[in-house]
Specification:
The protein has 761 residues and is of the alpha+beta class. The protein has three domains: 129 residues, no CATH class; 365 residues, tricorn interacting facor f3 domain (Immunoglobulin-like, Sandwich), CATH 2.60.40.1730; 171 residues, no CATH class. Helix content is 26%, strand content 26%. β20, α6 and β21 form a beta-alpha-beta unit. α6 crosses α7, α6 packs across α8 and α11 crosses α12.
């Protein structure tokens, strides 16, 4: 008897399915639009350079570019002069008849097309300094002035400058495995980065007549040549940052002898450029693991401000296996260093700042550098370089290997707000963190801004939280560090915004309206959700570290990241990458309907209609039971309040035949329908509240939506009366619409307060 009922039930279901399939054959067909379909239509095919696991392929290659430079700063005229010798090694399988070189400073030429790339009628506000810069001062006369380009024997080479790119034509193509040496002499006028903006330049201090220089993109640099782009010679328009090759640098920088400098690489001649006392402190700081040691203090920096020496000193640096070079120099700088143990290596955490940065900088800058080295190394790989330097520069936030510029300045009286303090700590963490992405995991910033900014912002969030734990005195009265980006709730205003001004994460930085939310905040939030809600910390952390280590000192693509995260975790994430990175869909999941029901041997009118639709004889039905919900005309409250199978002799007979106790039947059955108006599929996180004051948290896997894209139903069987349902109770999924997240619906504050009182506890 038992088995026959199961057979009848299976046959009934199969007939219903067959009818549905037969009916569907008469409808219009469509291509696969399932949210869980494979991402083959978006991904580049794996190959011998980037394999299907997301790792470098067996024939992966990258070029090597070494630089020897002599640089001189004309402090009086704010001008930089340089000569460089470049050794280009061709590790590709291709012959290269010419080289493409980036001239990023050309974006500041008076006739640069980048100056006219945007409309000028959009803003209704303007700072007075911007008004003067736009309409009173003439355009800044910037950009590279190239004196000559020669081969290693001094013979002139033919070259052609196209905006921010220079093509150098070679007498003979560089063969695979070959190398070529060329020389370039150049100079340019340095911009005021406060008034004229820009990632590098100087700040002028009227009070003492000094300038503080943060110098980058200051030399002609080779473009990347790889298997993905060929030559990455996309013009520099201002937003898309830099694609660069690794190499070794020998750089000699001549500045006034009263300047203090920091730069990419290790200082080779500290004894020559430092005073006896400064040199002593410099060497002693190598063992200062407990706290920073001041090399040049504020009193000494104030004395230097008044000197304006006419003498010159040359600081010599050497950096191995870096993709770029930057330096900062001024007689205004206070200088401190602290040793940090990172794995088996000692790293110097360094801060460089004028007196205008105190007392904020002396309190928190080096602490932020130390925390960044520790946390980032934990989640990626041990920091491989000898130092990490944080330089104070007004309105700046920019990164280079081993050195970065960071904003955050107190008022003139030394007071500062929490906003200024946390803003400074966060930007230092972010910019120092860029040493990992993209200075070591060397993604193509010109094409995919999110691959460095988004990944960096995500680990920045983790670091900020650990900073708050390490230095609780920095967050008095707060339970955690107040991160601006990373937590799902922070991204809601952007994702719920006007779609005409939102782009997918997988967009070139030049084509995005809101670059901060798009390339920084949204990918960081996506990764945070991936770690906390989708994959779990253990699986995510292993996969993220695998990606980081696989692509150290290499050029990864987006597909390499996506594939590695799946390869190292055994979790299918195509649905996640498609929704979060390739679309502007939003998360909106809620409770659509809740019905209580019981089981009966007699079908109600709704069931009868369905049975007749599929050809059943209502007078001769096989043995089956029917769900009767509270919207049915046959719903009997008494039957529902007693044992839910009271009206089903079939079920009672079955239990008796099986020797089962009917008292074990749950007292309550509810059919809960969840809706998904938003385009993004996400795990369904639900908190059920019961009349006895207890709560139950359930996470349904994202696959719940694979066949039910608009809505899905779940039966809740319980011995307790269900009185409340909340979707995403901790705001884990960036759900943009909270109005449908609760049942009973929040009809009014008073009703909802009563409801909360009812389930309190």
């Amino acid at each position: 008897m038992n088995k026959s009922k199961f057979t009848i039930g299976f046959t009934f279901s199969f007939v219903l399915l067959s009818c549905v399939l037969l009916h569907s054959q008469t409808q219009q067909g469509h291509t696969n639009n399932n949210k869980f379909k494979q991402l083959y239509d978006q991904f580049a095919d794996p190959n011998k350079y980037h394999n299907a696991s997301g790792a470098p392929g067996v024939e992966y290659f990258q070029q090597k570019v070494d630089y020897v430079m002599d640089i001189e700063l004309d402090d009086e005229n704010s001008r930089l002069y340089g000569e460089e010798t470049i050794t280009y090694t061709n590790n590709s399988p291709d012959q290269l008849p010419y080289l493409w070189i980036q001239l990023d400073q050309n974006i500041r030429k008076k006739d640069a097309p980048a100056l006219e790339k945007n409309g000028t009628g959009n803003s209704i506000t303007m700072r007075p300094s911007s008004f003067v810069s736009n309409y009173v001062d003439g355009p800044f006369d910037g950009g590279f002035n190239v004196d000559w380009v020669k081969d290693e024997n001094g013979n002139a080479l033919s070259y052609k400058i196209n905006q921010t790119m220079m093509r150098v034509d070679l007498p003979q193509a560089i063969q695979p495995g070959g190398s070529y040496v060329l020389q370039i002499k150049w100079w340019y006028n340095i911009n005021d980065h406060v008034e004229k903006r820009g990632r590098s330049g100087y700040e002028f201090f009227k009070e003492d007549g000094n300038k503080a220089y943060v110098i980058a993109q200051f030399f002609p640099r080779l473009c990347v040549y790889n298997d993905v782009e060929g030559w990455q010679n996309y013009q520099f328009w201002g937003n898309g940052e830099f694609a660069l090759e690794f190499g070794d640098y020998e750089v000699n920088i001549t500045v006034p002898s009263d300047h203090i400098m920091e730069a990419t690489g290790s200082l080779q001649n500290p004894k020559e450029v430092l005073s006896r006392e400064e040199y002593k402190r410099f060497t002693t700081s190598e063992k200062s693991f407990d706290k920073p040691l001041i090399i040049v203090n504020e009193e000494e920096a104030r004395a230097k401000e008044a000197s304006f020496s006419k003498k010159k000193s040359t600081w010599k640096y050497y950096a191995e296996n870096v993709r770029d070079f930057g330096f900062a120099t001024s007689r205004k700088f206070i200088w401190e260093r602290q040793a940090v143990q990172v794995g088996s290596q000692k790293v110097m955490a360094v801060s460089l700042y004028p007196k205008e940065g105190n007392p904020l900088w002396e309190e928190y800058s080096t602490k932020a550098v130390v925390q960044t080295l520790k946390t980032y190394s934990k989640f990626t790989f041990d920091y491989p370089y000898p130092k990490a330097v944080s330089v104070h520069a007004k309105n700046q936030g920019m990164e280079y290997p081993m050195i970065c510029w960071n904003y955050g300045r107190p008022d003139k009286d030394g007071n500062y707000s929490d906003r200024t303090k946390f803003g400074m700590i966060s930007v230092i963490i972010h910019e120092v963190g860029h040493n990992y992405f993209p200075m070591i995991v060397n993604s193509d910033e010109r094409q995919w801004g999110w691959m460095d900014e988004g990944l960096d912002t995500f680990v920045q969030y983790l670091t900020e939280q650990e900073f708050g734990e390490s230095y609780p005195e920095a967050i008095p009265g707060l339970s955690a560090y107040p991160s601006r980006r990373g937590a799902p709730a922070k991204i809601l205003p952007y994702m719920a915004g006007e779609q005409d001004f939102i782009s997918p994460i997988m967009s070139n930085p030049e084509n995005v309206y809101q670059l901060g939310p798009n390339a920084y905040a949204k990918p960081a939030t996506a990764l945070n959700i991936l770690r906390e809600t989708v994959m779990g910390r253990e699986a995510f952390d292993h996969a993220f570290k695998t990606y980081s280590k696989r692509w150290m000192f290499k050029h990864p693509t987006p597909e390499d990241f996506f594939r590695t995260m799946e390869d190292a975790s055994a979790i299918d994430l195509d649905w996640f990458w498609r929704g979060w990175f390739y679309t502007t869909d939003v998360v909106d999941i809620g409770v659509k309907n809740v019905k209580r029901h019981y089981y009966s041997d007699t079908p109600d009118n709704k069931a009868k209609e369905r049975l007749e639709q599929f050809g059943y004889d209502l007078d001769n039905l096989p043995e089956m039971v029917f769900k009767i919900d509270e919207e049915s005309e046959s719903f009997d409250p008494k039957a529902a309040s007693e044992n839910p199978i009271t009206n089903s002799k079939i079920m009672q007979d079955y239990l008796q035949a099986e020797g089962l106790d009917s008292s074990k039947i749950p007292a309550y059955f509810y059919e809960v329908e969840f809706e998904k108006p938003g385009g993004l599929v996400m795990p369904l996180i639900v908190e059920y509240a019961y009349a006895d004051g207890t709560k139950e948290r359930v996470t349904y896997p994202v696959q719940l939506w694979r066949k039910n894209v608009a809505s899905v139903k779940k039966i809740i069987a319980s011995d307790k009366e269900l009185i409340g349902i909340t979707v995403d109770p901790d705001l884990e999924t960036a759900d943009v619409n909270q109005d449908n997240n609760s049942w009973p619906k929040k009809e009014s504050p008073s009703d909802f307060e009563k409801f909360k009182e009812k389930i309190k506890g």
